[in-house]
Structures are given as structure tokens and as C-alpha cells.
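Recall that a protein's primary structure is simply its ordered list of amino acids. Everything else, from secondary elements to tertiary packing, is in principle encoded there. The following example makes that idea concrete.
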Amino acid sequence: MKELVVDLGCGRNCRGDVCVVIDFNWFNPYYNPRPYDEIVASTKTFNDKVIADLNYPLPFRDGAFTGVIIVHTLEHLLCPYQTLLEVKRILKKNGWVKIVVPNSMVNPSDKFDDGHIYSFTPWSIARLVAKVFKVVKVETILKDHDIYIEAIKTD
């Protein structure tokens, strides 16, 4: 059976088979998604797009996906913990999640972006994700500007 991956909050740079777009009109001329291609997954040309608010329950059935990608999204959400619980719900057993957030210790965009509700350090994001998943990798990437986390659903 083919893996089915959903990219939450992808904007125009979807890396999954299904993409949850928060705002089709969002555009930042300085945002370059390409450095994440090697780390998380490459952008896909053909995929299904769903418009949804990630602050509410996700519009997918339980256990629908093998993997979830969340790049530069959790810091914008009202309750990242609730979103992670929803991610757990839509993941199959042993499903994986890959997350990238700005490193508030060094990333200047984290301090100046009014859209950021939360700031994360490697320790704080790892602690949050560990409340829901088994964390298998935490590392700083792109000259320490971002934090990358891999985790799996164990139950």
C-alpha cells in the first residue's frame, strides 16, 4: 500500500500527497522553501489541496496518513499541542511526523514576525512534541536558524 503524506500549512510549497493550505494568498518574497527539500521532502507538483484552519479539528478520518509534514506552521497556531493531538489522530500506528520551526535563540524572523504566536527553542519544541509522540531526532538546521524534529506515533 502506498504511503499517504499530508503537509499541514504548506502554502504554495506542498511536500505531501495532500496539502492543507491555510491561506492561498500568503506570499513572502524572501521565503525560500528549497533548503527544506533535502531535510523534510521535496515539493510535489501534483497533489490534493484542502483549505482548513489548523486551530480546529482536521478534516480527515482517524489513521488516514502514514506521515505528516509541518514546516514553519506550529509557531502560528493558537494551540500547537491541540494540533499535535489532531496529527496523532490522523496518523496510522507507527506513522511519522516531521516538523520544522524557527529557532528563537538565533532566528531573527521569529522576533519580528507578528504572525508568530509561539517561540521555540530546541528544548521547548522537543518537550512539546514528546507529550504526544516518541521523538527520534532533534537538530538545528540551516546555520542553527531552524529546529528539525522527527517523531513517531507509538500507540
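DSSP finds four helices and seven strands in the chain. Residues 5-152 form a domain with the Rossmann fold fold (CATH 3.40.50.150).
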